[in-house]
Please model this.
Amino acid sequence: MSLEVALLGYAGFAKLAQGRGRHSRTARPDRARARILGWLLILGSFLAALHRFGPYLAVPAWLALLSVSGVILVLLLSRWPMAATAPWIPMTVIALPLCLL
Amino acid sequence: MKGNGVRQSMAWIHGWLGLLAGWILFAMFVTGTASYFRPEITRWMQPEYRPHAVPQAEAARTAVAWLQKNAPHDEQWTIYLPTERTLSTRAFTRARPNPDPKAPRAPRRPEVRLDPATGAPIEARDTRGGEFFYRFHFQLQLPHPWGRWLAGLCAMFMLGAILSGVITHKRIFADFFTLRWSKGQRSWLDAHNVSAVLALPYHAMITYTGLITLVVMYMPWPILANYPKPTAFAESLYGDTAGQKASGQPGRLADMGRFVEAASAEWQGARVSRIIVSNPDDASSTVTLLRTGEDRLNARGASITYAGVSGARLAVSPAPGPAVETAGVMLGLHLGWFAGPLLRWVCFLLGLTGCAMVATGLVLWTVKRQRPGAQPFFGMSLVERLNIGAVACLPAGIAAFLLANRLLPPMLAGRADLEVSAMFWAWFGLAALSLLRPVRRAWIETLAISALLFAAVPIADLAMVGAFPTDGLFVAFDATMFLLAATLGFAAWRTAVRPARAARPRRRAPVTVAEVREAVDVA
Amino acid sequence: MASAQLGGQGWSMAGRSLTALIGGYAAAAGLATLLARLLPVERVEATAWGMILSFLFYAAFGLWAFHEPRLTRVAAVIWGAAVVAGGAALLLGVRP
Model:
């Protein structure tokens, strides 16, 4: 399975969404930290894709999985703004061992 | 608005490009998305066919045996070997040309599907299967070549709409996660933005590579500048697959299984996708084997040509240069053969995002121009009706196609064509009936009917096949039908509850500067 | 604003659309052909580059036709590009 790419992508987008200005009561430095973590997770998902699919297939596969995880996040975010971003920790935790499989 | 000229003109052209091509683009997106599962749909539509997987070499032998019995003197055979997805051998032949030079080129004979184990034609209900969606996707069920030209024109409009949409949309990243429900026009714009922007790499890729799949038809002029004989371009791409001229001496083909094994060994175990045999009953017959594209992005695989009688290796396709490789990768990205199960589902979901992008864009065009209380002008009514006919009624047609497959008697003559008729009667019939209803009721009712028809597909499957499906493919297919039914039902429900919510006075958060700017952009 | 400017007169709109649709195709085909003929790489490669890039040319011409307000300029540039590029490709003839 290559689910870890999508999980890391979702987690990364979730952090980016938390780090966005509107709709969050988080303080500014926390938001900046969330954004940095978000980009790092997205980078992680790319590395996971590189590891899983090899250099040749990695870019299209990564973009496809990232897009779908983004669409799912936005759909959930539109209905449950808090709950949608919350599972980023378990997702990251599940994704890490999956990378090694 | 000084300095905003580009954005304004691009917003204007974006709206018109999307509108004029939108209805056909929606149908292309829907059928194209279904085509990711072309072999799976075909298998679902022939539930009585229970194939036995055999090695490729064996499938090649049985296919050749059948062709030698049924089309021994034809000019060319093309054999598609089974994969683990298709599980059947497909073959078609082309008759020897009439010696009279003025006679038209010999037509390609209809394709037969063979059981790889026995080489006999498949005994199952006659159906176009997934092939129907695939063909409709770029031929639109119109006479050749008009369907392909129209599909190409719509793809070009789509490309223009994507480029102008990106130029128009100034806050791509700020709006990245914004989707607000029940806010009228704002919600439709959000939905259009989100479905377009989040899957933008996919939309841009699928549109451009779609044009590339038929580039030789759409843009043949560069070939004429470089080749005195246009067919020479294809030969330099694929190697010379047309083969040598027939010698007139009879000859017997060597064992086809050996060719398959030899080619596969030369490709480090990669499989053969297609075999082309030229002059199969002649002493100078040739056998060309093409490598599968399922393990790499470039769909235009390498090929090896052997002498059919002696088995001598005659030629290999040249290694592609950067441009030819790029074109092959574009083709591969569009076809999606490289995608394993997970990636294929991801592609399917992205295709659905494309459907949503086109549908929300079409609805947005009308919502933007509606004035409360005003009588809709003629163009507005036309667009609204066409939107209903395309977005809400096409799914009913697809469900009817699948339902007809289960409900028509399996041995009925001409049933494959009846299935196709069922699709168009349901689609256009429902669209015509919806004209009798006021716009909003028509949306709700057609969406609900589409939902019910999709929900009926798995039920008909259970009822007619008579056993609960155990094969994963059938379970997944039926579950997908239920999910599509649920999605359409959700859309019908949302349409039904919308005005009640909009009428309720809302407490609003203080309007931010950003929202004011958005409102200005929208207007 | 732009829509009023562009959509105002029916005939100029029709001319603009035809220029974008047909002139744009002709100009893109001409440029792609010229590129394919002149690129100093292998025959098959040059042909493929021309074909791959042609749709980008077409899209650029088509969109620009609706951005530039002066119709005469749009027609002159697009039809001019079609005639010049197509004529040059025709004069050069098939690659020897």
Summary: The mean pLDDT of chain A is 89.
